[in-house]
Specification:
binds ligand MTE, single chain, membrane, 2 domains, OxRdtase_Mopterin-bd_dom, Sulfite Oxidase, Chain A, domain 2, OxRdtase_Mopterin-bd_sf, binds molybdenum atom, transmembrane, alpha+beta
Length: 380
């Protein structure tokens, strides 16, 4: 088999005009994903110098939904973009060192951009599918690589800016910046390629977000958990290994503030004043569903041990070794009237898979921090 050369690719569809436009849309997706990703990362920090707002309660649901939608839309766009620029891979490297160096730097930044983008989008998609076939921490890796990708993207934009500006302001059929060999008409028009790319991006984002739109949930092929009625179960009690401890008659919810402690049975909690709140579970993996939660206001429990307002609170689960087994609730969340230690969901006793005997539910908080099977509340 002969290795193709740049001249082997003759289609006018693989042009600067198409690359710049798809690149622009891709850039928008990346900026949305980066901004919302930073919010999500910050929301999961144990210490937040400036706590995120507790209202509106659906804000994290919105930003994380946008995050996954932008990432999903970027997949078809990236594939089209790679197809358009593919011939450039076969461009010869200039002989003279003075010319070869900038070329090498430019291609190096593109290699980093393409590889990190592919890793970000594939691991993100596998995460949405709740499949973690790797040994590293998804969150730390996704966060670190985002900066690598954005750095490479900025270099890429800076290098290409003159061509990009020309291509975006010019006509879509303009050939000024095309490779000299890209002169044959393709099977479709450039406009058709762009329409297809845009429609695929919107379609992919729709397949993911449909789960949160009433009536079309069945189409949410990319976030199948949100299709079920009621609140989905992210991890069952059995797989978390908590069934025995959660159903044991010796179960107590400990509330501790320094040396002041209380140990409450579930019946003690049921005997306290009950409140009901509609709050979403907004999973970092993309799905979100709102439930009617009933339970005891966390603030009422903190009052039992004389905890003042304005204190961060650590929530521990019966389950150990999980991202959710030990999380910190910033003071503004702990003191919020809607933050409940929930005993019921949608008018029924909380099921063991949703966190029986008692679980945390707070407004505007990533799902992974809505601790199930709570065993201990510590005022910090
Ligand atoms: N103890 C414990 N709490 C947990 C989890 C877990 O694995 N263990 N999963 C979290 C995640 S990732 C989400 S999205 C929500 C889902 O709550 P649900 O299963 O009741 O829908 O619970 C959170 N609380
Ligand atoms: Mo989650």
């Amino acid at each position: 088999m002969r290795i193709p050369t740049e001249a082997s690719f003759t289609s006018r569809l693989r042009s600067a005009a198409v690359a710049a436009r798809v690149g622009l849309w891709l850039g928008v997706c990346f900026v949305v994903a980066l901004g919302t990703g930073l919010i999500s990362h910050y929301a999961q920090l144990d210490r937040q110098s400036v706590p995120l707002p507790t209202s509106p309660s659906w804000l994290y649901k919105l930003t994380q939904g946008l995050h996954v939608a932008a990432g999903t839309a970027a997949i078809p766009l990236l594939l089209v973009k790679l197809w358009v620029v593919f011939p450039k891979l076969f461009q010869p490297v200039p002989r003279k060192v003075r010319e070869a160096l900038p070329t090498a730097l430019e291609r190096g930044s593109i290699a980093i951009l393409v590889s990190t983008s592919l890793v970000q989008l594939t691991t993100g998609m596998l995460n949405v599918a709740q499949w973690y076939p790797w040994g590293f921490s998804f969150r730390a890796t996704h966060y670190a690589l985002a900066f690598v990708a954005v750095g490479a993207l900025l270099v890429h934009i800076a290098v290409k800016l003159p061509i990009v500006r020309d291509a975006l302001t010019g006509d879509v059929d303009d050939t000024t910046h095309d490779r000299p060999t890209a002169r044959s008409a393709g099977p479709v028009s450039r406009r058709a390629v762009l329409t297809l790319a845009g429609a695929s991006a919107l379609g992919a984002a729709f397949l993911y977000t449909a789960g949160t739109v009433p009536g079309v949930g069945r189409l949410a092929a990319l976030s199948s958990r949100s299709r079920k009625s009621g609140v989905p179960i992210n991890r069952t009690a059995r797989s978390a290994g908590v069934v025995a401890a959660a159903t044991n008659a010796d179960y107590r919810l400990e509330v501790a503030h320094g040396s002041a402690t209380r140990a409450l049975t579930r019946d003690d909690l049921v005997a306290m004043e009950q409140r009901t709140c509609a709050l979403p579970i907004a999973c970092v993996e993309g799905w979100s569903v709102t439930g009617e939660w009933t339970g005891v206001r966390l603030r009422d429990l903190l009052d039992l041990v004389g905890a003042p307002n304005g204190r961060d609170v650590r929530i521990r689960s019966i389950q150990t070794f999980s991202a959710s087994s030990d999380t910190v609730l910033p003071a503004s969340f702990a003191d919020d009237d809607r933050t409940l230690m929930a005993l019921g969901l949608d008018g029924e006793t909380l099921s063991i898979d949703h966190g029986y005997p008692v679980r945390l539910i707070a407004p505007d908080r990533p799902g992974v921090m809505q601790t199930k099977w709570v065993s201990r509340i510590e005022v910090l």
